[in-house]
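Need residues for this backbone.
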């Protein structure tokens, strides 16, 4: 199980530029479905890659399912050379996305986000309309199954 509080606090304290997307974003908006990983979209500028690599390093990130006997180097270069990382860490599973399907880059996700307070920090998460748009565009069964609940939450918010 992911330690959401510790992960979000670490990212915020390191001043990483990120937007929470996925299951935790749905929970923040009132969704009842459980999520077992933290999905974030992150800025790809060099300073942010450096911060992200440094803040996660103490938690021993490795690609999920990657054989333990194979070496894996976690650093800024690794982040620069990829755009999607599904990691196992000492904090739990963390997925790093350079962009969000249906929305675009980090800058697009940030523009479609709201600032929230949680885990004793302030951070950005996708707004509910944008989260619905992203889940619909992703088209995965687990995303589509959650849409009715998210759409009902959106309907309840609208006057």
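Answer:
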């Amino acid at each position: 199980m992911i330690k959401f509080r510790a992960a979000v606090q670490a990212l915020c304290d390191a001043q990483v530029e990120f937007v929470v997307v996925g299951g935790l974003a749905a929970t923040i908006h009132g969704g009842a479905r459980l999520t077992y990983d933290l999905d974030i979209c992150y800025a790809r500028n060099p300073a942010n890659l450096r911060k992200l690599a440094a803040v996660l390093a103490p938690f021993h990130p490795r690609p999920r399912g990657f054989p333990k006997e194979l070496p894996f180097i976690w650093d800024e270069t690794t982040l620069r050379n990829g755009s999607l990382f599904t990691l196992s860490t000492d904090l739990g599973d963390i997925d790093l996305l350079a962009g969000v399907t249906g929305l675009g880059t980090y800058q697009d996700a940030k523009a479609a986000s709201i600032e929230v307070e949680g885990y004793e920090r302030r951070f950005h998460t996708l707004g509910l309309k944008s989260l619905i748009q992203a889940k619909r565009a992703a088209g995965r069964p687990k995303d589509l199954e959650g849409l009715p609940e998210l759409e009902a939450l959106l309907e309840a918010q609208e006057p």
